[in-house]
Amino acid sequence: MSVTIGIAAFGPMAGLGVFAGLQAAERVGEGSIGGFAVYRVITEDGRLVTFKTQRGGSSTLVTRGEVTGGLPPEDVQRAKIAAVISSGPDRPEPLERGLPGEAEVGLVTGHRIPMAPTKRGRPLNLEVLELMKGGVPATQAVKLLMDEHPEIDAGIIAVDVNGNLGAQNSQKVLRRPDVMEVLREDKEAGCKVAVFINEIHPNTTAPSL
């Protein structure tokens, strides 16, 4: 599972922001995108909510009755903690293994192979989540694991319920010619976001946003 895009955010309307970010990438990008996707949020009332699809990306993530393609429910849009992971279609189940999370802890996403085994034989993203569960801030948990595994084929983004957001690519991934990482924070608004992509290229025929 060489995942091509991972996004995580913390702050007001993070749920909507992450979903809209995936939509934007699908509109202007080409490559392994618009296939499988896992989108998870932790709502204001403390629920872990999951949407997933094997084909269609954001256009099939949300289904109301027989209708797909709409926005998530309002409580999901308002969630302060949100993340998504997406790439090409038909990936091994369970898809959630690419984006583990716990309602009282946080979410862990990434790109390339975020569930690659660590030196202890455990999925990298799960080890990050376990550190967070033990009280380690997301920023520190990501740095500890990524510094320990410079040659792992992964980049990890984690966000915890306290608003810490950590993001780091391995040295191996950073040697690739097709990697982009974006980290932004607006302290006044209380918002943080990180985006990792690889193997997604601008589509010059796509409509402008």
Q: What is the strand and helix layout of this fold?
A:
Blueprint: E1 5-10, H1 14-28, E2 29-31, E3 37-42, E4 48-53, H2 58-61, E5 63-64, E6 67-68, H3 74-77, E7 81-86, E8 101-102, E9 106-112, H4 124-133, H5 138-148, E10 154-160, E11 165-169, H6 171-174, E12 179-186, E13 191-198, E14 200-202
Polypeptide structure, described:
There is one protein chain. The chain is an alpha+beta fold. 23% of the residues lie in helices and 34% in strands. It is built from six helices and 14 strands. Strand 3 and strand 4 form a beta hairpin.
Task: Provide the descriptors you would attach to this structure in a database record.
single chain, alpha+beta, Glutamine Phosphoribosylpyrophosphate, subunit 1, domain 1, 6-stranded antiparallel beta sheet, 4-stranded antiparallel beta sheet, 14 strands
Question: Which fold name fills CATH's third level, the topology?
Answer: Glutamine Phosphoribosylpyrophosphate, subunit 1, domain 1
**Largest sheet: spatial strand order:** 4-3-7-1-13-12
Give Rg in angstroms.
16 Å
Look at the structure and name the CATH superfamily.
Aminohydrolase, N-terminal nucleophile (Ntn) domain
Unreliable parts: none
What would a concise description of this structure say?
With 209 residues, the chain is α+β, with helices and mostly antiparallel strands.
